[in-house]
Fold these 2 entries.
Entry 1:
Amino acid sequence: MAATNLGGAGADAPERVQAAAAGHPLRGVKPPAATSAPLAPGAVVPGATEPAQSGPEHVEAPVAYDAILLAGFGGPEGQDDVIPFLRNVTRGRGIPDERLEEVAHHYRHFGGVSPINEHNRELKAALEAELAGRGIDLPVIWGNRNWDPYMNDALREANERGFTKLIAVATSAYSSYSSCRQYREDFADALEDTGLGGVVQIDKVRQFFDHPGFVAPFVEGVREAIAKLEADHESFDPTTDVEVLFATHSIPTTDAAKSGPADRGFGEGGAYAAQHLAVAEVVMREAGAGDVPWKLVYQSRSGPPTQPWLEPDVNDAIAELPAAGRKAVVIVPLGFVSDHMEVMWDLDEEAMETAEEHGLAAVRVPTPGVHPAYVAGLVDLVLERVHGTPAAERPHATDLGPWYDVCRPGCCENVRLGFKPALSGIAP
């Protein structure tokens, strides 16, 4: 997950004009922001299949989907891709290339290649294998928000293959503007850009932060990390010497406060913080580490220093551990489904360096990636919508779930930008 990509007009506009003049759609380019989202007569949810159009919290009627839309963030795959990719991510904010280069060095450190596209290829293959193993005939089409293959090209592929009912799985587990609503806006952008409004319908599986399939890899990772520290350091007592830091992407506090439905009353951190805290508590309990100290921390903040973002920063939290008597830290990338650039740079490079500087032993827990429980869980989430599974029968590891199939009115507003057209939720 990343906290930018704010939409708006982009540098590809001349290419679009040329393509239109040539009489053919332009592929391999991020679509512009949509001006509207298609609403069926009497519907309150744009672009939805019929059972979701009236906006129930949980869709409990079966839907015969044609395919799964795997929705990723996207990332560069070479040095020449880095700045164009970052232009896509920050589109509409007017950030000059010289400032983008300040972020680009993270990617350039790894040869200009983000791991995220390869991870999505692996996830797509794993989902296809899981579906085939269960005898489920649902093709998986992959589209990204910010790099090739783009979401609009994925919809063109679906249309060309005769698929009109798609169930989307976004590679992001939590509720916030950047981790949920922005994906829904990108669905609307792609639908308008391709002219497939009223032809292709898109629903989205619920946010899966507390689905057992997502939680299980972290439970396993925390248990193994603490066991490793105990094995490597015989004198360690985890209840006093070790602290577990659950790390997730920081977001502006104004966006955090607006995450989730307004009527749930989650407080200052909104649903975003509440979901992470609830899952972290479950992970510690199920890992048999209920007596080990832990904390939710944040990473990868961007934006002007004057803008408040969620804190504490992971590096600041690590720096404070020796004074609390800690000798080791377990870092859990709870906000990430795979080893994004933020995991590789901000945790594996910077956080590990901070731990070393302060004399702390450190272990970083793996992300779910293509863990069998995670892959099976994503298929289970799709099947909830295929079968119309009643909410009472849906698995969830915290008291917050099961989360909504259809996002509620006003959910996850971007305070600066307001509401833009989005699918899979009640307008706005």
Entry 2:
Amino acid sequence: MALSSPGTGSDTGAPGTAVPGSPAAPRPTRGLLTLLLAGNSAMYALYIGVPGMLLALQIEDIDPADKVANFGLVSGISAIFATVFNPVAGALSDRSGRRNPWILAGGLLALPVMLLLGSVHTILLVTIAWCLGQAVMNIYQAAITSVVPDRVPLAARGKASAAVGLGLPIGSTIGALVGAAFSDHYRTGYLVFGAIVAATAVLFTACAREERMAPKAPLPVKEQIAAFGSALKDHDFRWAFIGRALLVLGYFAVAGFQLYILKDHTDLPAGLSPEEAVAILMPVNSVAMVVSTVLGGWLSDRFDRRKLFVGASAVLAAAALLIPAVSTSWPAMLAFSVVNGLGFGCYMAVDTALVTMVLPKAEDAARDMGVLNVANAGPQIVAPFVASLVVSLSGGYTALFLVAAVLSVLGALAVRPIRSVR
């Protein structure tokens, strides 16, 4: 899984291609925003429920003694695979001039791949199967992410981005609940997640009208690397990139190990299993995230202060990480979930707005927002390795919370040098 900024596709087309929002552009399908919400919710349900619950249980079942190291290895390798495969899948759908066939193919293939993942019994085969899972899901993700710039007029991009963004908390809640429901039968749980994605892909492609676009020529790798370096030469954009990377690294270093934290660090009440605890924490976190996303975006607009809200929300995320570091109680984890959701939700909403204000060139906005997505995806690759190393060396999770808190504070400080935005 890679967090991405919705609606960052190019608004300019090849010759003969209708620009979304222009008079020649096709009118969006009625109900497209609802379909986007459903499609992204299904995707995030699998992304959260599989690695956050079922995969962790399966790896623990195979090798309980080395579960932390193995989970970090599997998560890290699959994240590398996903990060490389996502732009490849996006380029393939660009060249075809179609999105729906790729959404349908990725969604339908999720079902047999999840069946395969649930049937393997070694760490090596789990790694291979989950990499295949990342491949088919990134075919799906790359195509559905491109629907907003392809089919939504500019005037409706805000609502479309909100529909896409709400897929994360809604999908996270579904993923946690389904994962907990099938924690004792994770092979069946894999099939349920595959079926959810497959059914949603069929629904989306059946209901969302699509007109073939002019195929786009692929951008050579050399030009992509040059574009990446060019964007990071800009002072303000570079600091925004660094801040995002640091905070995402701290967030996912902890989020990826949530089940093991509940098993090995938290004193749960009698009768509450770690799987049930995840099913409680995730909706709580999601509600807090939705509230702070809406409120933080509105307040930052009202007061025209982006840096203040970005920095404050990053510090709030750091404060949240200190709660379970000083207390192993269940109420502490509940408090952490609420405060962490408030901090991270506000950060992602306002920081995305901030980044759009420090883009080096308006004509390269889509390209540079793609560069920003490296700050989302890259830390997710590194996070499992960092987390497993910290836990292994320290012998527990307290040090992991402290390291993640330091990273969040550094992320808050990184916005201070930005000059062009208040």
